[in-house]
Amino acid sequence: MPPLDPNPPTFEPTGRYTQARRDAFRKAHNTGFLWPAELDLIDDFMCKQHEGFAWDDTERALGSAQYPHPPGIFDEVCRIIRKKIEAGVYEPSNSSYRSRWFCVLKKDGKALRLVHSLEPLNAVTIQHSGVPPIPEHIAEKFGNRACGGMLDLYVGYDEREIAESSRDLTSFQTPYGACDW
Length: 181
Hints:
By secondary structure, this protein is α+β, with helices and mostly antiparallel strands. The chain folds into two domains: 1-60, no CATH class; 71-180, HIV Type 1 Reverse Transcriptase, subunit A, domain 1 (HIV Type 1 Reverse Transcriptase, Chain A, domain 1). The chain is built from five helices and five strands.
């Protein structure tokens, strides 16, 4: 998030925050509660974050249709989500972005696995152009040395935390409200 300037510049209409919208905002908040300098600071914030505000339905965040969940598995899906919230894997989110998710049966044919569909996010992710290391070169560096490794046999997917600045991009809607992981 861009830092706010304690001495904001003179207002210049920016993107969605037009002069007309500024005037309407000022008229609605003309109560004397905020000082003129505070209103100028709000203008600066609104200009810097203009795409985060929707003034009509055409500017709303693009939502994605959720995959339908059969009513027969609703309680089990809620139990899985609640368990992940309690474990700290999922946390509440205020993001306007929502990714889709669905359930599949695990190999045992009984238990459910939640799958998060991040295809729209992956479509705009910048690929790393680096070349992966050559395994032989890595193996040579470990010659005549003791090596150890770890493997997560319990979950396999939740062993790494997502950067806090990227968590809003993983938000999804649950029966308990929006969550991210």
